[in-house]
Write a structure and sequence with these properties.
12 strands; alpha/beta; single chain; elongated
Length: 383
Amino acid sequence: MAFAATSSTSSSPISRNLRHFSPSPSHHSSRPSFPLLLRHWRRTTISSSSSSSPFTETNSLERYQRETWVYDSLFSTAPRGGVCDRENEIAVQLPELKKLLEALRAARSNLGCGNGDCGSLGRVALVGTGPGDPELLTIKGVRAIERADLILYDRLVSNEVLGLVKEDARLLYVGKTAGYHSRTQEEIHELLLSFAEAGANVVRLKGGDPLVFGRGGEEMDFLQQQGIKVEVIPGITSASGIAAELGIPLTHRGVANSVRFLTGHSRNGGTDPLYVAENAADPDSTLVVYMGLSTLPALAPKLMNHGLPPETPAVAVERGTTPQQRMVFAKLKDLVNEVKLAELVSPTLIIIGKVVALSPIWSQQSEHDTLKTKQPCAMQTKG
């Protein structure tokens, strides 16, 4: 990594007390070892995302290895077939979370803070981890991670970023994916509040930037209303990180004079996110669609129906900025079909606009397509 990730040399009094906290009961000898169960789980898991994704998917082995403290009962409730059961997972976590809270409060009380004598509660930092490449994490973000007593992290936080967490800190997965929310947003609010009130230094890790389709604004607003100090440490949002990786300027003089970010998801019961297609179909602007894989088949024709030329260059990028990155460059009229053929999966970012043609990869592909078109003619002439 570009930034040296060293453990913090001066941990807080509360974190020093937590080093002696062990939520595991004393019946370990009566059950299989954790690594043995993980090997069994690896054989029975049908999903391939845990082995190929750099992110902390809901069935990531790395995730469970880092969270043995809270999954002490994992052995009876381990996900089968790569699918987690949300209610069982929370039931497993709850006793250990309560024990950790009790340990935090006891440590705070031992410091004379039981009646608020210490004059301050814990702190919460909302930290953006960027689009996937751990080297895109900011120095300020690294320092916040290294100071944390408790880390609450999302699905699109890479396992390499979690490797920066100090050994005595606790990790808790609160990610969301289609069809599976490990915790509701309200539960996440309460977790942040409870641990901050107990005096913990809490870090909420989010992929990309916390305030760009990350619901960081909701968490910040809730905590501030409860009197909790919140620090927001921005991250490189996927649009910027992935566009830079591909050599695409989001704006360019004479090509695109503005850029628009659009989410492909809507809030439960909310308005269809594609209602903005009418205003987004601007040939002189760049459109970036987050989480838009499922809605692309509806969005592309809407954009063309509202005036965006079918020949408009576009690209869809899966797991951008990571070694697992895959991408499809195509004209807007062909994008849906090409994405289906490539079988791209989430997370995938979509960039639509004339600036896409400025990428060196676009010109290389155009040359390749031209050669493919000319080759049959040349062979026919020789015959």
